[in-house]
Fold this protein.
Amino acid sequence: QQQVKQSPQSLIVQKGGISIINCAYENTAFDYFPWYQQFPGKGPALLIAIRPDVSEKKEGRFTISFNKSAKQFSLHIMDSQPGDSATYFCAASNGNAGNMLTFGGGTRLMVKP
Amino acid sequence: DGGITQSPKYLFRKEGQNVTLSCEQNLNHDAMYWYRQDPGQGLRLIYYSQIVNDFQKGDIAEGYSVSREKKESFPLTVTSAQKNPTAFYLCASSMGLVERQPQHFGDGTRLSIL
């Protein structure tokens, strides 16, 4: 049972454009939502994370938007750059049940120069 | 520099053979994890450990085994019982299983069947 659904599977954006990746979850007990960035042949690296008590968190060009009632959250990459080309994973965890992360299926982003 | 070291980077397994993947961390983290990543898919949890000499099965533990004899080390053995072992294996660690501590990942081991 996939508890975190991520879309799209792949995304092509022109340099300078906005990349948007969406995730939806089922478990209402989830209370921590990180995003990871993974380059080929490397392990994922934490990019940004949000808790459900805020609706938006911004770090540089990266913004997480969170909609608790819809059980959805999304990553926006503003002014996308070729160096942003990577696979992005959303994840979720329940802080009251340990730090176990449930990952989405990933989105392969390509930013064209 | 603190971090997680996985070795080897590439590993080949013959039929009926057990292979062991190494994971070492110098972050002084209590919790360690093993994930499996298949092409175009997300990460799936194999095993995790909260403390030395203790570990728990994740979602896909069948055909795998682990040990946690030292805080710094969490090796994963892929046994011959794992019929589809070809994948990218990732080790991670965090300060603990509470307080939503971020997980830090190594650079993975790619396992293939000969």
User: Anything to note?
Assistant: The two ends of chain B are 35 Å apart (CA to CA). Residues 29 and 95 of chain B are 4 Å apart (CA to CA).
